[in-house]
Amino acid sequence: MRLHGVLALGLLAGMPAMASTVYPVQAGSSLQFQGTQQGEKFMGAIKQFDARINFDPGQLANSSFEVNMQLKSMDTRNAERDMAMQTSEWFDVSHYPIATFKTTSFRQTPQGVAADADLTIKGRSKHIVFPFVWQKTPAGATLDAKVPLDRLDFGLGAGEWSDESMVGHRVDVIVHLVLGPAVATPDPVAPKSNVHQTKPPSQKK
């Protein structure tokens, strides 16, 4: 029995570490959001973000997404609104310059694959469900998702701004990632992939 145990430990020690299937994020990716101000819809984008996409539909337990968003790069094509969003009533960017998204698990649903994740904005973390569409392509893959959030969950919009007639409580986050060929790496903390800056669609003030 002792010999069997030693042999088993030897075999485990000789096994390579589980490789991560990391997809580098490419130009053409975007992280956008849609809200309403005084009843009118507006679109914005976070133009600078880093993402590490480790995904294998056949190994959901070993998959993970991590995204760091530079909130100073938010652009809604309205200078007054963009300046307001940097203030303490909104994102308080001087104290909380980065928002983070990190998955905790993946699961199959009747509609497809969904991730459970922690989203942290302005120092407040909330557990969210992140359903997404994963599509393999000749060049790699694409990932698309649309997730509704309540801005008040993150303390966004204090005082008069908490009134929904001024700014809607619901914000839809729209993710489109263009991913290059997968790179297998045994290192679970490989460097994040840098995304090229993107331009949001033109908006009316």
Report on the architecture of this protein.
There is one protein chain. The protein is mainly beta. The protein has one domain (17-194): Lipocalin (Beta Barrel). It is 10% helix and 46% strand. It has helices at residues 2-14, 79-85; strands spanning 20-23, 30-37, 40-46, 49-54, 64-70, 74-75, 98-109, 112-121, 124-131, 133-137, 140-150, 170-179, 183-185, 193-194. Strands 1, 4, 5, 7, 8, 9, 13 and 14 form an 8-stranded antiparallel beta sheet that branches. A 6-stranded antiparallel beta sheet has the order 6-3-2-12-11-10, covered by helices on one side.
TL;DR of this structure?
This protein is mainly beta and 205 residues long. The chain is built from two helices and 14 strands. The protein has a single domain (17-194), classed as Lipocalin.
Based on the model shown, name its key terms.
205 residues, 8-stranded antiparallel β-sheet, mainly beta, Lipocalin, 6-stranded antiparallel β-sheet, 10% helix
- Give the strand content: over 45%
The quaternary organization reads as single chain
| CATH fold-level name | Lipocalin
Number of domains: 1
Radius of gyration, whole Å: 20 Å
Number of DSSP strand runs: 14
**Helix/strand structural class:** mainly beta
pLDDT < 50 stretches: 1-17, 189-196, 199-205
In CATH's first tier, which class applies? Mainly Beta
Order of helices and strands: HEEEEEEHEEEEEEEE
**Mean pLDDT over the residues:** 86
For the record, the CATH architecture stands as Beta Barrel
By DSSP (H or I, 4+ residues per run), the number of helices equals 2
Q: Write out the CATH superfamily name.
A: Lipid/polyisoprenoid-binding, YceI-like
Overall morphology? elongated
Main sheet makeup: 8 strands, antiparallel
